[in-house]
Structures are given as C-alpha cells and as structure tokens.
Write a structure and sequence with these properties.
With 130 residues, this protein is α/β, with parallel strands linked by helices. It has one domain (2-114): 2-Layer Sandwich (Transcription Regulator spoIIAA). It is 29% helix and 28% strand. Strands 1-2-3-5-7-8 form a six-stranded mixed β-sheet, with helices on both faces. Strand 1 and strand 2 form a beta hairpin. It starts with 12 loop residues before the first strand and ends with a helix. 27% of the residues are buried.
Length: 130
C-alpha cells in the first residue's frame, strides 16, 4: 500500500484480499481497496471479520485511502454502525467526488466520520476519537 509509507507506525499485520489491502495497527485498520469494486454487505462482512479478530472489544477506527475509484453502497453504514467498538471512520482522498460522497455517506453513519487530504491528518483525527 503505497500511501502507508507516509505512516510512521509499523503495521502489525497486512491482509491482501481480492477487494484490496488492509493493514492492522495498534488501534486502527487502514484499507486501500481495489479499483472498480463495490463495497456491499459481503465486502463489509469480510472487513468486519478482520476487525473482530484484531479488535474484539477494544475501541478502534477505520481509515480508508480512496486512491482508486470504487462504488460504496451508503446503506452498508447501517451494518457498520452495529460494530459498537468502531469509534470513527476517516477517508483519505483529494478527489472532489469523494468530498461530495462523504456528505451523503455521513447521513447513514451516526458516528464520527471525516475526510482528509493526507494519511497523517487522518491518523491524528481517528486517534482523538478513541
């Protein structure tokens, strides 16, 4: 995951999946998903199972680097909301469309969610919500 080079922490575990790459850190997950996928209920279940394995009860955050274009079904946030110990979601992107999409996605997720231009900004923000 190229953008992870900006991250000063070392990941604890890396998953290379059909949907993309997920890295696990002490208190957050970092994902960079593949071009053209659709994040739907099945995708969320796969990501949730990884989160549950590493953060069964501890508070954690999810950071996604939207370098690639992919579709997000905003209703999946209703499923994500069920993960009680997930405290915040950060999106890293400089794309205008993502800034617009986050405004829609926030209506479906009743926890802190924000968009950032850089990974270090996103990491600092999610850590402030744990």
């Amino acid at each position: 995951m190229e953008i992870a080079n900006e991250n000063t922490n070392s990941y604890l575990k890396r998953y290379i999946l059909q949907i993309g790459e997920i890295e696990i850190y002490d208190d957050y997950m970092l994902a960079q998903l593949n071009e053209g996928i659709t994040i739907d209920v099945d995708t969320v279940r796969e990501i949730q199972s990884i989160g549950g394995k590493h953060f069964p009860t501890e508070p954690f955050a999810y950071i996604t680097v939207r370098k690639n274009s992919y579709a997000v079904d905003p209703t999946i946030y209703l499923k994500v909301f069920e993960v009680e110990n997930l405290k915040a979601i950060a999106i890293v992107s400089e794309k205008f469309i993502d800034v617009h999409n986050i405004k829609i996605e926030q209506h479906f997720f009743n926890k802190p969610m924000n968009i950032f231009k850089t990974l270090p900004e996103a990491v600092t923000w999610v850590k402030s919500h744990l």
